[in-house]
Amino acid sequence: MTSDAGPEASAIATASEQTNATPPAAPARRSVGKQLAWAALAVGVGVPLCLGAWIGLVMLGARLDWPFTANEIFAWLAAVLVALVLWPITAYGAQRQVWHFRARRPDESMRWGAEPTAPVPKVPLTVGERWARAAILFVGAAALLAICGPQQVTLALFGALDAASAGARSWWLALQFGAFLLMAALIVPVLWLTDRRVRRLPADSSERTRFAVVQAWYLGAAIGWVMSAVVGFVIALMIVRYL
Q1: 64, burial (CB in 10 Å: exposed 0-12, middle 13-18, buried 19+)
Q2: Between these two residues, 101 and 219, which has the higher pLDDT value?
Q3: Spans of all domains in the chain
Q4: What are the start-end ranges of the E strands in the chain?
């Protein structure tokens, strides 16, 4: 017997089976050798490209009389990489972790970030959800640029953390506590707005599974944004202090 359902319906059905039925065995973990090879390739290609882009921008700025020093240009270049490369990567990884957490059995423990995860099912999006994603990506990237690019902002954040701490160890604790508060400020509204809708839908509904995937994207975007903001701030601070 053949089915007339399209690929989008098949994707929802597969995701529903993963959510409501007993989860399949965890995906195999990639070998350490492959992970090291990808890391070496990223460093071997990414670092020369970044240095080349920095030198090229410095030379272009000197020719066009840009009002930026070399380290300011480097800070803006790092901010662009954080906003356009690091955030999408961390958001995707966090989304997979959220979906993996949702698919676990009630009696199954989970080590966040220490277990291999399967890709998140692809589901159809409404027009409103597509616009919401586009707005989140635009506003999030602009906010990362505003935080990690201008060195005045970096120094202001550093001064605030320095005033709230009594030493190097407490400074890092203050940074972690600030990141925790920021993550809570982003995640709690997302859960409040989306979890109620998920719970109102029938447990075996394909729409519930579809919106659960959408919810995982929102949560992953929030978690990834905070992680990227912290990394970008630390990079910007190192540029200010050591370049």
Answers
A1: exposed
A2: 219
A3: 31-67, 69-242
A4: none
